[in-house]
Amino acid sequence: MTEIIPRYQGYAFDLDGTLYLGDDILPGAANVVQTLRADGRNVVFVTNKPLETNDSYAAKLTKLGIPAEPTDVISAIDALVLYLQRNHPGATLLPVAEHVVIGELENAGFTVSPDPNLADVVVVSFDRTFDYDKLTRAYQAVKRGAVIVATNPDPYCPTPDGGLPDCAAMLAAIEACTGATAEAIVGKPSVHMAEAFLDRLGVPAADAVMVGDRIMTDVAMGLGAGMAGILVLSGATTPADVTASPIVPTFVIKDVRDLVDH
To answer: pTM score, two decimals?
Structure first.
């Protein structure tokens, strides 16, 4: 018998592995979001994947049958900008990142440079263009005193064909050669990400739930912020992972359909 899931006032949904996988919507996802919205529940979408702008994520969701505006989306880039504005205003940034992250940092008023001699902060992100040159520049910058700030701690990103190395892989390489550790990892499960999307959600943490496919990011962040944390088994996590985890989700469900189907 399926456990009955209570209705919350606010829902923060992870994207990859929760509402869609790659370019395909997961079964029932559009209907779930529609049902919750029709019931007066607030919904936002939260992603650690810093490869697209919020406009692009909103357009993708809308195309897949989940109408969304850019303001409905909170990404690790939003948390990154918020963290840097608060902790490193006016800093010169050396990016180990793709063009979307670089563009958003420049739009936020930061100076971005590939020169390790100028860098105050090495920004590390999910980077499919990562190479030895970028690693060397990051190494040189850190050895000259730059700190490291990373977007997210995910070791891989789930895809239909088995996944891609994510930000943690690039960060591990830089930490290994420099002997330094990141000053902050600002995406899920950090407090910086939780603050960003709870403000957008507009409800107290006790009345909200984080729904996602990863225990150590989605569920951990929700629980740490005082929310419920619901794990779906439609993405990166298996039942065996749940059994082995020290973090206990509020609920574990097969997929998002269990949020509304009792």
So the answer is: 0.83
